[in-house]
Amino acid sequence: MTTEERSAPTRTAEPAEPAAPTGTAGGRRDLAAAAAGVLLVALAMGAGWLIQQGDGSLQVQWPPLLASWDPHLGPGTPAAVAVAVAVVAYGPRLAGRLPWRALLLTCWAGSVAWILSLALIEGWYRGVERRLTTKHEYLRVIDRFDDIGAALRGFTDHIVIGPPGNWPAHVAGHPPGATLTFVGLDRAGLGGGAWAGTWCIVLGGSAAVAAMVALRALTGEHLARRAAPFLVLAPFAVWTGTSADGYFTAVAAWSVALLALAATRTARHPAGAALGSGLLFGLTCYLSYGLTLLAALLTAVLLLGRTARPIVPLALGALVVPAAFTLVGFNWWAAYHLLVERYYQGAGGTRPYSYWVWANFACTTLAAGLATVAGLRRAAVASPAAVRGLRSGASTGAQRLAFLTLAALLTLVVADLSGMSKAETERIWQPFVVWLMPAAALLPDIGRRGWLTAQAVVALLVNHLLWTGW
Question: Using the 8-state DSSP alphabet, how is residue 468 labeled?
């Protein structure tokens, strides 16, 4: 037995239907879980409307989403419908038959097409070019980074509201790695909202590919292929195009994927993959403060791989970006504490925790879709066996998938309880929601196209009935 065989997680042949419960009863319970998701959204809408009409404290116009009522069609409508129909009709078959590399490229193209077509429902200018140029966004401060070193050293001076020249909401709400990305695009001759939006859409679409790479390494190719159509047709694509959170999602997803390759020793150079994962994790922490919680998912990957071997190169890689920013003069911890102050100066100070602590998950239900809710029910049922299987080293692919998706859900619970995620979670939780989506692979073959249709309908209704914020 080779070193690689000894260190890889034990794998068994995947069953034709990798779900935990099967049969008619399992199908009825899936529908009941989906119905519970619909009820949660309805309750959040009803309670949110009463609160917002009463005192306006929710700070959203169409609770629980940051959106306003705006029924409309647009240039992207035919394309979005066509992409949805194509994925529903042909996605499962292509996912099962295409060669692996061709499938990855097809999924990337399909994901980008879905994100872009949804964005174009608002038209090119309103849906793509203008999105990252509004008063809250990164592109409004490009000219303040002519001297990058000086801007980073003085970054914390402009976070809280009060001193002259405080940053716009998104710039103040994130470490400067996010802003520097768009400064870099501008310096490379790709300035303006069109290039910034394209960057977020194209990279955001690659998150589905990263998830498939990780799933293949951790759970087996069969389940990765089953998850592919659901990853492509993700309802949260409404908020991926175009927001910087789509870009953040891709960076975080590739960090997880590279660590999965390292932990299972399926990469040609596992140490290099772990180092790359650490580099991306370090960058992720300087794109969004909340994405430090990605450490929980990386830990889950190491547990699934049953190895601690990648930890040293992972840690070394993770130190590079923080060291660079610190040497230049940016203090992450000081900035985070100032952000908390800024958060409570704004909407975060008025939005009631008692509502958002549960309504956030109504937003997540809309972003993840009803198929994901049903899949998570199956993951929860499989969780005791998954834990026993991991302890014994004899877990099935379905059990490992259940463990991964529930680890992502637990991460969202932590983010939710922190109180720093009151509203807008349909957008800002994308880097974690993408790891909930594969739970739909646990659903049986019967009804798969129906579940895919449900995913598409959620996204199409939200995008055509509402104008989503930011």
Answer: E
**What's the rounded Cα separation, in Å, for the pair 65 and 80?**
21
Mean pLDDT of 255-274: 97
Name the β-bridge partners of 466. Answer: 69
C-alpha closest to that of 409 among 376, 447, 443, 370: 376
Q: What are phi and psi of 68, to 5 degrees?
A: -130, 150
236 band by pLDDT with thresholds 50, 70 and 90: very high
Q: Which of 329, 339, 260 is nearest to 292 (CA)?
A: 339
CA-CA-CA-CA torsion for 363, 366, 369, 374, nearest 10 degrees? 50
Task: List the beta bridge partners of residue 62.
Answer: 65
Q: Is the peptide bond before 219 cis (omega within 30 degrees of 0)?
A: no
What token pair was written down for 157?
């001076």
Checking DSSP bridges between strand 466-468 and strand 67-69, what pairing results, if any? antiparallel
What's the CA gap between 49 and 252, in Å, rounded? 34
Which of 114, 410, 375 has the alpha carbon at shortest distance from 238? 114
Q: Are 43 and 436 in contact (CB under 8 A)?
A: no
Share of residues in the chain with pLDDT > 70 (%): 94
What single DSSP character describes residue 299? H
Q: Which residue has the tokens 């203090």?
A: 331
SS (H, E, C) 108-144: HHHHHHHHHHHHHHHCHHHHHHCHHHCCCCHHHHHHH
Give 62-88 as a DSSP string: BTTBSEEE-----TTHHHHHHHHHHHH
Contacts of residue 238, Cβ cutoff 8 Å, sequence gap at least 6: 118, 367, 426, 459, 462, 463, 468
d(CA 449, CA 189): 43
> Are 295 and 316 spatial neighbours (Cβ–Cβ below 8 Å)?
no
Answer whether 405's CB lies under 8 Å from 379's CB: yes
Structure token pair of residue 136: 């809250």
**Residue pair 206/250 in contact by the 8 Å Cβ criterion:** yes
The encoded tokens of residue 202 equal 């194209």
Sorted by sequence, the CB contacts under 8 Å of residue 294 that are 6+ apart come out as 252, 255, 256, 281, 284, 285, 411, 431
Rg (CA), the chain: 21
- pLDDT single digits (tens) 425-444: 999 999 999 999 999 999 99
Q: Rounded distance, CA 256 to CA 252, Å?
A: 7
**What pLDDT, on a 0 to 100 scale, did the predictor assign at position 24?**
59
Least confident of 23-27, 186-190, 336-340, 361-365: 23-27
The CA distance from 445 to 26, in Å, is 12
